[in-house]
Amino acid sequence: MGRDTVGEYLGEGMFGMVMEISNQKNEKFAAKMIKATKDKPEVLKIELDMMEKIAADPHESILQLIAV
Length: 68
Ligand SMILES: Nc1ncnc2c1ncn2[C@@H]1O[C@H](COP(=O)(O)OP(=O)(O)OP(=O)(O)O)[C@@H](O)[C@H]1O
Description:
The chain has one helix and three strands, in the order βββα. A three-stranded antiparallel sheet has the order 1-2-3, with no helix packed on it. Strand 1 and strand 2 form a beta hairpin. The site of adenosine-5'-triphosphate has 10 residues, from strand 1 and strand 3. This is Protein kinase domain-containing protein.
């Protein structure tokens, strides 16, 4: 299996930075790099639960969640 390539910095949110990733087929993804924190782990849990709920019911207007 080939390696993905980390591309440009896309931005930063409450949980950490977002980087562009390209796979071997040159398909592009956004990867959220979640900051390791001991503060408010329950807030991070809410965010992860929300992302998984969105992934369970995909919609053409909402970004697809590939993996957590
Ligand atoms: N799929 C994407 N394509 C391009 N840029 C993106 C993508 N996802 C995130 N970004 C960039 O990264 C930034 C941070 O995104 P992220 O989803 O982590 O936080 P947010 O939802 O914008 O803010 P917060 O986490 O504070 O609510 C965005 O504002 C945007 O600039």
